Amino acid sequence: MNQNETRDELLQRLNSEVHELRQLVHLHIGQIRGLNSYCNLRISQLCAHERDAELALLEEYVKKAYDEHIGTIEDACPDLAARIDIRGTLPDGEQESWYRLP
To answer: Do 101 and 64 form a contact (C-beta atoms < 8 A)?
Structure first.
């Protein structure tokens, strides 16, 4: 807060930033749901052995994207990355699959 900025102005600015972040979160939720629906539809149209392979590939892409995202955050702010990374909270078997990425 600079000397010219009052508490009310600061609070108003913070509220505006939180509002923008909420909008982005809900946009991303919509995008994720849309992509999930599309992927499920496309995968359901495959035969069984193709379906299993595609689901495994999709899971690999998601885990890789998450790993890269957390890595980017970790480079800038390791404490934040440690607080938001869910991999350490997963059951042991699931944790291992996240860390065995190619």
So the answer is: yes
